[in-house]
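Re: export button greyed out
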Amino acid sequence: MTDTQKSTRPVNVTSKTSVSVLFAGDSGDGMQLTGTQFANTVAVYGTELNTFPNFPSEIRAPAGTIAGVSGFQLQFSSKPVYTPGARFDVMVAMNSAALKANLKNLHRGGIIIAGSEGFDVKNLKLAGYPEGANPLEDGSLENYIVFPVPVLQLTREALKESGLSSKEIDRCRNMFVLGLLYWLYSLPLESTIETLHSKFQKNIQMADANISAMKAGYFFGDETELFANLGRFDISPHKQHGIYRRVTGNEACAIALTAASKKAGLELFLGSYPITPATEILSTLAKKKKYGVKTYQAEDEIAGIVSSIGAAYGGALAATNTSGPGLALKTEALGLAVILELPLVVINVQRGGPSTGLPTKPEQSDLFMAMYGRHGEAPLPVIAARSPVDCFYTTYEAARIAVEHMTPVICLTDGYLALSSEPWEVESSDNLVEIKPRFQPARKPEDPPYLPYKRDERQVRSWAIPGTKGLEHRIGGLEKQHETGNVSHDPINHELMTRLRADKIAQIAESIPLQTVDNGPLKGDLLVLGWGSSYGAIKTAVEQALENGYSVAHAHLRYLNPFPKNLQELFGNYKQILIPEINNGQLIHIIRDTFMIAPEGFTKIQGIPFDEMEILNKITDLIKEL
Amino acid sequence: MTDNDTIMTAQPLLTARDYASDQEPKWCPGCGDHSVLQQLKSVLPELGVAPENIACISGIGCSSRLPYYLATYGVHGIHGRALPMATGLKVARPELSIWVGTGDGDALSIGGNHFIHTLRRNPDLNVLLFNNEIYGLTKGQYSPTSKIGLRTVTSPSGVIDNPFNTAALTIGAGGTFFARAFDRDGKFLRSILKRAALHKGTSLVEIYQNCPIFNNAAFEAYATPEDKANNTIYVEQGMPLVFGKEKNRGIVLDGFTPIVVDLDKEGFSSSDLWIHDEADINKASILARFADSDSLPRPFGVFYAEDRITYEDALTAQISDAQKNGVATLEELLKGENSYEIK
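Workaround output, generated via the alternate export path:
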């Protein structure tokens, strides 16, 4: 297929550093597949990459309407990228609803490739345009570079000899668009051809038709006069030599749990109940049976976590995954896991709340619930992932803390990380830290009695699992007597046990790394303190602010409870601290309360990630005030 | 080989004392729970399972204190959630013998959802449902098995909720084993506990258990030898349904309707009677409904037993199948199936 690389006619090729593209269309237009294929191609090509799908919460929203618009956004670049791009440079709009829904996020001067059949009278009406108005014709898009392409007609033309039904031919239209984009960005077709061959292994006719449609799109770019002025673009590869894979945050969580179980020599048990946007962790692990993974789709959220507690008592690496409403249902059982002092990983993929809220949209609004959302004194470790790949390392760390400190751990991600993807250089198993369960060995009759709540110097109790002779013991939700674990209502004992449980969590600070500054000076005017998925936007904004000559640094928290030991010292090195959050201000409360300082908050509660420009503007304003 | 043969050939190496923990039961004097604990401790040694391979899981309520009094592994969990905890443990550790102690409030009210779903999945658990038709630990509120009209602190004018029929619920939910026993009939209770232990799958044993404080004499109709003879029927596999002090009353099926007949007066012989068949789900369903009728004796014994694959065996089989070419390694996991090389 290298012939497609060569243009038949000289077209100007412009080098660019980064491009953000949105593929948008109706749910039935196949934009997720198109975006995924494009992402795979640029990943293999070796550019930096970050992707994010955006689809409606309705499975089959009415065709042609704004509610039915499905999008796939990606940014690829010859330098590291941390977001799919808050705004895009290029938009593929397969219909008028897709254009209307997304135009506000297209850069001024950006490129629109419009599937012109999606702008007929019917589609315009469904998208809610006034009668007679057509953005492709009425001049309303004069600030953009618009290319109307009769995608459907050209696909039908290309596939008229294919022998497929007209319905099947029409379904190939997304491949035409994909081919056109490959031409526009000087990308090879091989990766998609391979995928199509393997996807349609049993239907060669279908594979050939899709490939033909893609090539037709590619050659259309070449042959049409449409792009003569624009020319083609080239984004040069950046990735170092190596083996890579592309993962979403949810996949990374699933891989991490499996890896942690292997490394710890434990069996993985996931008790779970489907909930958007956390379900892919369950479905990914359900396919990992060859690694011995056991998944249990319970009847509800409560049974999901409680079955995991049962498995943890049995000696498994036990986990459960959920999103906000599910975490609310699990809170009583979390208290049980706290008092039982059993290892348990709880992955909470945050979404907009309260209640059903915005199920498909991200929000960082479960931090308070993770920190405080239990009755009684029930502290537990809370950590948060910053990127899709970091979901692996954070989840793995959650498993290590849970097993080595005998405690439930909440690992926070969100709907943005869950579905976003980026390339990940394949990790070597040797680089993963050891996870050492503290199993209590069998006891001989002459040995002293087993004390289930006897603690080591870190206040951690031992793990005595059924089947071990001489360690038979009973634990439960009633307050435990110090060391023996027998039921105790003694007031002094309750205070002691409450303090011991809290001290155990506080001592985890001894085994976690000190907080580092991600970017910027170690002393300066402003520290931007972030947590979770806002990493990419903050990183990009701070990079820009530094280029603009401001004294600003970025630190990003993984450990939210306990905090790294050096945070106070770190804060002292800056005149002011800015805490951006996708919520109504939660980390800022905790920081204020813990360190008695007055940071500046910056919040956004729209179910969408920060735009790096918003943060950059805030940084600029704040530093000017200092 | 029948179940009884299995039990007799098992060599009891330990005694009831070896299964008793050092904790004194804190149930009220006269509570039926003492009897259930006693029978369970005496049965466990006969099953040939060492204490370290047994776990007792419970929820919340008087009956859910059961694990504390057994010298086995045990978890006293949270209200209503004994069954999911036991299921998780069983899935993780299929080789363990797992007993669940629960009550009518724990299993059928707050844990009702888990109850039906556990039964349909059929993990190999022995579930002892202590039914006293009242909330004991919270001091006497009506439960989902309380009879209509029962006056309690929360139903001062009498209960108006129709009660659950535990047997019908179990069979309706796809349970593979249902038996009913009585705290006062220790010998019979032991035989039922053994049957439950030997059934592979979720064995649901409803134990009528008297709460002397908040619902005393709820089962008085079956208590005295005279009443027991007249008001109960002990079903046995392959045997006709007869009852009465003189064993002169029986049950015949008129279509789907069970009718009490007098063997002495009405010209029926035992060959006309309903022959009990644990494998017959239709008959078990009719038997389950006896409790809804005042004119029929209350059945005790194993109503229904079905041989069906357990949840953990089905899952283990899937995992074995996925691993038929070997257990996948950590390196394979990290590399994934769609990795690519950048040269």
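The mean pLDDT of chain A is 95. The button fix ships in the next patch.
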